[in-house]
Amino acid sequence: LLAAPMSNSFLLTLLLVLVGFSALCAHAIPCAKRVNVVAATASTAEAGNEAAKAIDNDMDTRWSGKGVGAYITLDLGSAQTICTVTVAWWQGETRANSFSISTGTSSTSFTQVYSGTSLLNNDGQPVSFAPRSARYIRLTFNGNTVNTWASVLEFKVFQSGFAHPGILVSKSQISYVKNQIAAGASPYVGFLNKAKSIPYGQLTYTAKPVRVMTCGKMNGVDVDEGCTQSRFDGLAAYTQALVWQYTDDLRYATNAIKILNAWSNTLTKINQDNKNATSSSGVLAAGWLGEIWVKAAEILRWGGSSGWAAADITKFSNMLRNVILPLTTNGWIWENGNWELSMAEATVNIGVFTDNSTAFDVGVALWRRRLPWYLYHTSDGALPKCAPIYTTRDQIIKQWSGQTTFFTGLAQETCRDFSHTQMGLAAISNIAETSRLQNMGLWAEAHDRLWPAFEFHAYYLNRKSTSVPSSLCGGTIKIEDMATWEIGHNHFNKRCGLPMGNTTALVTRYRANLMPYYTILMMMWEGLTHASIGSV
Questions:
Q1: By the 8 A CB rule, do 240 and 297 touch?
Q2: What are the pLDDT digits (tens) for 126-140?
Q3: Quick check: 419 pLDDT over 50?
Q4: What average pLDDT does range 19-42 have in this prediction?
Q5: Where are the alpha helices (DSSP H) in 134-216?
Q6: Residue 442 belongs to what H/E stretch?
Q7: Is the Cβ–Cβ distance between 126 and 97 less than 8 Å?
Q8: What's the pLDDT band for 393 if we cut at 50, 70, 90?
Q9: How far is the C-alpha of 222 from the C-alpha of 173, rounded, in Å?
Q10: Which of 244, 202, 177, 188 is nearest to 517 (CA)?
Q11: Of residues 339, 370, 348, 324, the one with CA closest to residue 167
Q12: Collapsing DSSP states into helix, strand and coil, what is residue 388?
């Protein structure tokens, strides 16, 4: 029998437990549905950098106007209810721009809805406000830290709703890589050829679903009934969905759909033994599938005319709601942090795919809860922050695998092994990237912990030595290369312009060797989707 569906009232109650009343009151559908802009005008413009260049979907062009008080005005053609704009600033990684946003139903009367300063990156930065009716949106430039030139790469407007495709990759990102492949650019061509050559990319690949999935230990016995196979099948579906996007060969979409349909027509339950909560991994299996399967499904549903029947999409959505979501939304404080982070990502993904803003918010709340428990920052104090079940120093030290000296960049699983640590870093980054596509700023929230964590762990992976100073993991670490570095590298280095010497060296090595960006986990094809794509 199917597990009981997750009602929105239950999810709202869970959200209240996770984040409290004030955050719950702020709960709303993401404001990420793009609104078409009919025209753009400006008070002043440099020759060749006219206002229209800020709405042409091209990050290589810009509007530039000189002088404090210079403004650009967007016309939506008619009054619409809007709630967010995004602004990408030229050379935004090197200068902070002071600006305001105003809206109006006429071109002569405006009400200010925001005033502030841009972040130091060149990405589209969201500015959100209470939903309001407006036809005209005006950005007024009030100076920057370098000069008196206003220079905007892209100025976009959004209304309530999810962006699709909006899980990890967007249509613009896919289009960018597709154009790079057409131009024969590396590393994309190499990774695409690899994707088409491995078993996951074969059109003869056939899913092997099970009705009831059992994973890990059940009553003390190791069991794998459909667990590994389901991940293989998910990776095949994701691989072939990407190949379809980059080659326009519909056969790959057709086969990917067959794989997902096979599971949604079969799977009714994932077993979880809560009497042995620390050994049964049903919740982890659900988390992994919510990470892998839903990425493929989002592309197949929203990436073009794939031929996926509406009835089959509904059946797949119901499987996510009834089988996966009940196991991921509660989090899992009894295990290492990569578990709960994968569950958080699954919940976020399902929220986007099913247009369920409550599930999306629960996943984000899990991410926010686990992030400071997983990555240490000196502001935490002498000991790391931990789940409430760890109350003594000895318990906290044990949870951090015996580490007694703490410094920014260290992860809860660093001294366990670098493999599981990279799983955690992958889930943190994936959720931040998906949130970016939904006009949320989780990258900024994670910045002070995640950027140092990337550089710290990349340093030791590049050294390829298990011998370290005695103050780290007792002098010995367990290292293994895993392909989860491109997304974080692209954000911090390419969007924010931050130095990432260790991570850059790592991804360079991976690209040169066509590091197998295909694993049995969520870390797949980052080099084919995010390798130095910048802010597209």
A1: no
A2: 999 999 999 999 999
A3: yes
A4: 73
A5: 171-182, 188-197
A6: helix 442-463
A7: no
A8: very high
A9: 41
A10: 188
A11: 348
A12: coil
Q: Distance between CA atoms of 254 and 288, rounded to whole angstroms?
A: 23
Phi/psi for 140 (5° steps) reads -110, 125
Residues 6+ apart with CB under 8 A from 331: 18, 340, 343, 344, 366, 369, 370
Calpha distance 267→230 (Å, rounded): 10
190-204: per-residue pLDDT in tens? 999 999 999 999 999
Q: How would you write 55-114 as a 3-class SS string?
A: HCCCCCCCEEEECCCCEEEEEEEEEEEEEEEEEEECCCCCCCEEEEEEEECCCCCCEEEE
Please compute Rg for the chain using Cα positions: 23
Distances (CA, A) of 165 to 32, 147, 258, 302: 11, 38, 20, 5
Q: Residue 468: its pLDDT value, please?
A: 96
Residue with tokens 């010497």: 501
Q: Which of 5, 121, 135 shows the shortest CA–CA distance to 81? A: 135
For strands 125-144 and 39-42, give the pairing: unpaired
Model pLDDT, residue 23: 39
Q: 455 to each of 383, 430, 491, 508, how far by Cα in Å? A: 21, 17, 13, 14
Mean pLDDT computed over 483-492 = 95
- Cα separation of 496 and 535, whole Å? 10
Q: How confident is the model at residue 18 (pLDDT cuts 50, 70, 90)?
A: low
Whole-model pTM over 0.90: yes
Average pLDDT, the chain: 93
Q: How many other C-beta atoms are found inside a 10 Å radius of the C-beta of residue 107?
A: 12
- Residue 520 identity (one-letter amino acid): I
For residues 485 and 90, what is the distance between their CA atoms, to the nearest angstrom? 26
Helices (H), 303-356: 310-319, 325-328, 337-353
Side-chain-facing half-sphere of 517: CA atoms under 13 Å = 31
Q: Which class for 295: exposed (0-12), middle (13-18), buried (19 or more C-beta within 10 A)? A: buried
Residue type, 373: W
Residue type (1 letter), 19: V
> In whole angstroms, what is the distance from residue 437 CA to residue 433 CA?
7
Q: What is the DSSP string of 261-304?
A: HHHHTT--EE---GGGTTTB-HHHHHHHHHHHHHHHHHHHHHSS
**50 to 38, 39, 64, 110, 118: CA distances (angstroms):** 15, 12, 7, 22, 21
Dig out the tokens for 219 from the structure. Answer: 């009553």
**pLDDT tens digits for range 357-376:** 999 999 999 999 999 999 99
pLDDT score of 27 more than 90: no
